[in-house]
Amino acid sequence: MNDEVVQSLNSLRVLSVDMISMANSGHPGIALSAAPIIYSLFAYHLRFNPNDPNWINRDRFVMSAGHGSALLYATLFMAGYDISIDDLVSFRRINSKTPGYPQYGVTPGVEITAGGPGEGFANAVGMAIAEKYLSAVFTENLPKQKLLNYKVFSLISDTDLMEGVFQEAASLAGTLGLDNLVVLYDSCGVTFDGLLSNVNRESVIRKFIDMGWEVDFVSEGNDTREIDKALERAKVNKKPTLIEVQTVLGRGSLNEGKNLIYAKPLSKEDVANVRQRYNVTTNVMEISEKSVNTFRRIIANRMGGTYEAWKKEYDQIKATTVNPELKKIINFLETKDIAIDFSSSNFKIQNDYSEELRESNSKIMNIVSDRTKFFVGGSADLASACHTALYKEIFFSNKYANGKNISFGNRERAMGAILNGISMSGLRTFGSTYLAFADNLKAEIRMSAMMKLPVTYIFSHDSVAIGQDGPAFQPVEQLTMLRSIPNLVVLRPADINEVIGSWDFIVNNSRPVALVLANGDAHIMAGTNGLNVKLGGYVVKKETQRLDAVLVSTGIDFMTTYLISEELRSKGFDLRVVSMPSMELFFEQPLEYRESVIPSNAKVFTIEAGSTLGWYKVASKGCAIGIDDFGSSGFKNDVLMKVGFDYESILKKIEDKLKGN
Predict the structure, then answer these.
(1) Are residues 491 and 550 in the same domain?
(2) Euclidean distance between CA atoms 584 and 576, whole angstroms
(3) Average pLDDT score over residue span 114-136
(4) What are the tens digits of pLDDT across the range 299-348?
């Protein structure tokens, strides 16, 4: 590096440290050690245009080591994104462009919200899959196209490597041969609590080679020339590439190499020491114009007319193509419009229809798939059990990148994080597993909800009624857990009408959804209506004269509730029956509508084969009927009787309450 570049790099380091000191919060260690990595990437390799941060063919960069946010924000500022010094001064303050960890939609240049360790890396795997798929679909309609061929880069740390989600995603990325994925590993050997060797001594290089990756090694993390060479090699590799860069945590600090500097702002004495060590003489939160211009000039010289040439070709094809499929793809890339017409009103189902809900769901989601190219997903090794394969489609692979089915293997966490990454491209995604395993990907569902990504999580085997597999596979608390996640819509349809209505909502909204399905036969009950699913809850059967009580139920339990209402009516009780496929959507409706469905002065029973915890905002006191203990291994009816959720037990509980017992 020449002196100007050295000074520019050192200014980036010090600016990042200043941000952390101003906030009195943050992680200075990575800001000092990983600055040469991120500087080399942005200056010499990453394709981007700060004036068009959403450029379709930009390379994606994911800061999986999210604790390095100060370094990222300072880099984006120096690169010319719409971030000011004042924004950097506001680091970690409320409503700023520079939150503590990177957040999607808040900071220009930030591609995804940083979750826990390993999450960002797994998101990057999803982004790489999305590029492969979209590029293949584009090429089908425009042979030899070079308009969509971006790469995905990610910076990871030692803590990322130890997380299960990282291991799951790395294994799948190697299996799929994602050669458009390059990962830079800030290998400092220090974690929050101490030396990495205290908790992890595996050979990262051997492990990644075994997983099907190319691996490179840079022994001096301060040598941008060696980092540059490794990145050049990575860009032409035929496999995903891991570049291990050996660094010193907090390089230049009085506490370099110690965990003391991992997540604690530097002392005033140490800040002065760092400024002297790196020969930076500007005031706090100031950076020389020369250092910024040096960085921007390198980027401008490298990018040259790349963006303009791309845009010229793209605009020409957009203006001249007569291919309707290519027009749809271009429209999708610009608007994320999946171009599908789907409405519950277009389906007419016979009143005597009976079928397993997971099979009904399979039929409807395959109809969705047939109508759009922009719908992909898969299962965590349970597609045959959840019935979630797209039957007319091939499986995604390095050879067949246009495959819409993704085999995630038994990797629930990676599945969720990868789906989030794919969704960032605008593709509609789904993933499936058993409801009891929703706990395994809670963190990933939470990130979908936080970013409001239209990921659909399909959960089958939704109650203790699955029987003989036993309590470990019988969900009890999972529905309550899912409903507790802000922004997530939980849909538990009662029959095929409501399955259709669920997909009507999914297709015509851009919200994360948990679609919960039984694996038992569901008969259509007179009065169910797919068009009403978007309301969350609706009246299926009204009382005839007086209102003795309202029975509210969901999913396959609604069939039992409906039949119980008929028996109770024969005994003289006048009941209203309400289906509530989504508690969240119901409580989003105006109070007037909710009151028309469930009057505030009515006695209300809720019936659902799961925890009663969340139902007390609907049910009258003591009238939430559910399962508040774990199940048991045995035949379906025996298990339901043991937990008090068989037909006779539910009937007796309701009848006793109505009689005042």
Answers:
(1) no
(2) 21
(3) 97
(4) 999 998 999 999 999 999 999 999 999 999 999 999 999 989 999 999 98
Is 137 contained in some domain? Answer: yes
Indicate if 117 and 199 belong to the same structural domain: yes
CA pair distance 201, 182, nearest whole angstrom: 23
CATH code, domain carrying 103: 3.40.50.970
Of the candidates 478, 491, 499, 619, the one whose C-alpha atom is nearest the C-alpha of residue 561 is 619
User: Average of pLDDT values for 508-517?
Assistant: 97
User: Other CB atoms closer than 10 Å to residue 613's CB: what's the count?
Assistant: 15
How many C-beta atoms lie closer than 10 Å to residue 384's C-beta?
Answer: 9
**Nearest partner of 614 among 490, 493, 484, 516, judged by Cα:** 484
**Residues ≥6 apart with Cβ < 8 Å to 651:** 564, 567, 568
Q: Hey, what amino acid is at 136? A: A
- Specify which residues 376 forms β-bridges with: 429
Q: Any idea which residues carry the catalytic annotation?
A: 412
Write down the pLDDT at residue 519: 86
User: What's the CA gap between 592 and 58, in Å, rounded?
Assistant: 48
Range of the domain at 47: 3-303
Q: Which two tokens stand for residue 622?
A: 């003591």
**Element (DSSP H or E) covering residue 405:** strand 405-407
C-alpha dist (Å) from residue 137 to 142, 330, 338, 415, 654:
9, 11, 13, 22, 56
- Number of domains comprising the chain: 3
What CA–CA distance (Å, rounded) separates 40 from 36?
A: 6
State how beta strands 405-407 and 428-434 pair. unpaired
Q: pLDDT tens digits, residue range 3-53?
A: 899 999 999 999 999 999 999 999 999 999 999 999 999 999 999 999 999
pLDDT the model gives residue 661: 67
Q: Are 427 and 103 in contact (CB under 8 A)?
A: no
